[in-house]
Amino acid sequence: MTTVNNMISHILNEAHYAHSILKKLNEFRCGALFTDAVLCVGHEEFPCHKNVLAVSSPYFQAMFTSDLKESRESRINFNEISPRILELVIDYAYSGKIEINTSNAQDMLAAAHLFQYPAIVKLCEEFLLQQLHPSNCLGIEIFAQLHCCENLQAKAHQFVLENFTSVVESDEFLELPFERLQHYISIDHIDVRSEQTVYSAVKSWVEFDMENRQKYLSELLENVRLIYLDLKVLEVDSLICESEKCLSLIQDARLMQSFHETQPGKRRKSKQDIFIQPRPSTVAKDVVVVVGGISADGHPVSSMEMYDPHKEKWFSLADLPQPVTWCSVAVLSNCIYVAGGMLDNKIISKVWKFDSVERRWHTVSPMLKARARHSAAIIGKIMYILGGVRFEGKMLNVETIECYNPKSNTWTAAGRTTSPRIESCVVPYNKTILEVGGLKGEDVVDKFLDIYCIVDDVIRPSGEQLTLPENIRFAKIVVINNVFYIIWEDLKKMIALNDKERTFKILSEMQDSRIYSGATVVNGKIYVTGGQINNKATNQVESYDPSTGEWMLEKPMIESRAVHGCVTLKMC
């Protein structure tokens, strides 16, 4: 109740009044009551109210208020839209509701763009962005460009570049017009592992319609960085041999290859001068790789993933040949070696090698003795295996140290340790190996950092033993610029040990305490991956930047894992 100038009044404000009116108008429409327009598509007719359409859309407002014939006529014909889509648009005009799905998204976006319904356009764009896939991204990009959807076009274009290796396998790729293909392969940042992918894509596209496309081959090859291909193979390719222009490009690339081999660092003018540098994606760069482990439900994990810090994305790699756990994982000559561990509740001596170029696993010579819960370190081009347990009627600590020579594919004894550890963490440094954490003897936890020196491929205790500030069981240790970073996983603590001064410095703590995680260094940052948080494997990843002294969360792994390998590998 309100009082105005001594007059008493009541105000009625029905919250849903407008909605109920619109709902009633929609009922009138469905019954063809009071309608003054009929929208027609083919043989389908949809009675409507002009005022409702005009209020909902600038397109219809202009149509019904202009001097166009539609403003004077009751029947309006549309040819560029299907009856079902028009019906959905009309339903939206009366209700404000619409459902977008895979079968109608593109047609609905086209209609919404025509009839000027920006909310529907936005919804369709968001839906299509979620549907982007190597099999459809080319079509979506062209579609978005046609309908002036700049955001959708830009993101579809970026998706094409980032997934080019998969995109070229799609049917859409083979249907590309020449200009679009030329545009893509001229871009420096298409994501391919090797230039061979680009050449193979060009060849497939030409061969798909030889009669009409062979004439474009030489122009396309001008955008392929031929200097990085096997030119001997290209010179005998029947597609190349039939074109003098193509052979000329191959010859020029051969001269460029010879020039760079004989005079590295110098530049030589070439028909392909702007394409002398390799595409960034074909240059191997350091990535984080996690291997195997135990899942959140306690089962062995066979998968392997890599994290590219530049792209901030995880990618799947080839699975382990067998679901081994409690193994050692190390990188030697840019190949990953997985040695020993537990398989089907048995301790094994098997060793596998992951070739980073082939992206395949191979079996190599087994260790001299089976062991699990051990560590591996690389010094020079030799891999050393320390600690762990073996089974001989009962579990025994392993005192012997083995070394592996990949050149001869052989294992030899490399010394003994009087204080073998299990589940320790090691880091190589010059001609020494530092070992910390884990358990000694009868489950003893200590605060010592053991140092081993290597002379003629034989490991001996250096006689030096550093005492840490407190006992450490779940440890990680890495080295950056002659500074050792030691992490107490379960306590979140980390210290820096200066090699020359032998002094400790307390650093900022990790965001979460965990055990059985992995740790490695990429581009000067420490990455801690997975592990168990509250007794359950996680996919969480943290990184520490020594330049800022801060920890931050990174993109989580695809799969949760603990007790896994975590190494740095050069990959492209």
UniProtKB/TrEMBL annotation:
This is Kelch-like protein 21. It comes from Biomphalaria pfeifferi (Bloodfluke planorb). It comes from the Eukaryota. InterPro entries: BACK (IPR011705), BTB-kelch_protein (IPR017096), BTB/POZ_dom (IPR000210), Kelch-typ_b-propeller (IPR015915), Kelch_1 (IPR006652), SKP1/BTB/POZ_sf (IPR011333). The keyword Repeat applies. Keywords: Kelch repeat, Repeat. Residues 35-102 form the BTB domain. It holds the Pfam family Kelch_KLHDC2_KLHL20_DRC7. SUPFAM superfamilies: Kelch motif, POZ domain. PROSITE patterns: BTB. The keyword RNA-binding does not apply. The lineage of its organism: Eukaryota, Metazoa, Spiralia, Lophotrochozoa, Mollusca.
